[in-house]
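Appendix B. Chain record.
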Amino acid sequence: MGNEITAAYKAKPAELFISDVKWKFLNYCVLQGKNVLITGPAGSGKTVTIKQIAEAYKAEHPFFYINCGSTQDPRSTFIGNTHYDKSAGTFFSQSYFVKAIQIPNAIILLDEISRAHPEAWNILMSVLDINQRYLRLDEEVDSPTVEVAEGITFMATANIGNEYTSSRTMDKGLLDRFLQIEMEVLNLDEEYALLQTYFPNAEKRSLHVIAQIAERTRKEVQSHSPKISFSISTRTTLEMARLLENGFTLAEAAEILIYPAYDPVGGNDSERTFVKQLAQKYL
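Structure tokens predicted for this chain:
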């Protein structure tokens, strides 16, 4: 086991900015079939990190993706649907999730679990519980149970905190079913290095300016009396760099991707005005 973790640990992708010990721990969770929850700010690389660890183990650990944040009908997503056919009559169709939990050693990503409907959390309770590990198909005749296969690792992502107004406060019982890792925002040097890795043909000075603006917003959010409610995410900086490679200027990229995200209410005292003034210092 120790050798396996060490070998995978050495294979950490260069473009993945996560601490060595956290990457090593994720390897451990996969090899031990542990549930792990990755928390952190939006755009900090939570989903990408899980997809990278799944890629490292794809030969022995099939990967399944469930977007909890877009789930409108939890029972349909996690259990299945009853259908009617003229020739076959009424029949039950298992969900993609039910099929996934029956595959040994699978890695199942529960993305944006903090935005899932509370009914989805109730369904997942017995699935994630180490002492239960089953799912009851109460939509099917006789309500059979499906056992979670051996070696399955459930990996989830969540935005947790007052700043995530679209996220529900997660159930404590559900949180207790996961080991947790917190993703941190990148510092200036890390953000700049990441942008260069993904966009080597973009003008380096411009990439550095993008990283500076992002870092400044992150420091502002952490200040004693912040003038903005959220910072620029790495997801946004990557998209800005992509625009640069496609012929947009820095000012145009900021106008399209940064300013509209901030509230204009308040005029000269608004969040949007503050961010515009901040960005202009660098642009």
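Further analysis of this model is presented in Appendix C.
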